[in-house]
Amino acid sequence: xxxxxxPRTSSFAEPPGVPDSGKVxxxxxxxxxxxxxxxxxxxxxxxxIGNGSFGVVYQARLTDTQEMVAIKKVLQDKRFKNxxxxxxxxxxHSNIVRLRYFFYSSGEKKDEVYLNLVLDYVPETxxxxxxxxxxxxxxxxxxxxxxxxYQLFRSLAYIHSQGVCHRDIKPQNLLVDPETAVLKLxxxxxxxxxxxxxx
Length: 199
Prior knowledge:
Elements: E1 25-31, E2 39-52, E3 55-62, E4 68-75, H1 83-88, E5 99-106, E6 113-120, E7 124-125, H2 126-135, H3 142-161, E8 174-176, E9 183-185
Antiparallel strand pairs: 1-2, 1-5, 2-3, 3-4, 4-6, 5-6, 7-8, 8-9
């Protein structure tokens, strides 16, 4: 199994929002940054936290460190390299969600392959923070706006310096940790590298 990136268990999809705290899934995954040295990674407490046309996002806990991670599972077209994976492997910034590992898994249909991106787990989004204040018939404190915008601009300055254009900036793609107020830009699925560099 070594180097194949295939999971040792079958699909880990569970009913939305219901953690599977009893099962430990072990996969052979490649680190997000650095050399391509596949290693075994185990996780548990798997539950669905989001889905859409792109695929499904799970929350899980790494068994070795007990850290929470998000696992974004997308159908892989074998004819093309996954642009999001290629770009995320090159990015390293405190205001960009970090790619920890990636691995491939088989789908239910024959020849169906999924790419799984193991990312930092950040519990909230700017969208949900804004909705919270809106429901309370209140406005977001200006200090939050300043702190979030400053970090967003830092992340954009960094990716633009790397020749990357995100193309999908929206509150749902701005993750925030309510305890630290750290913001991280996520979802590089629509990203492009411009063919011509602008002055």
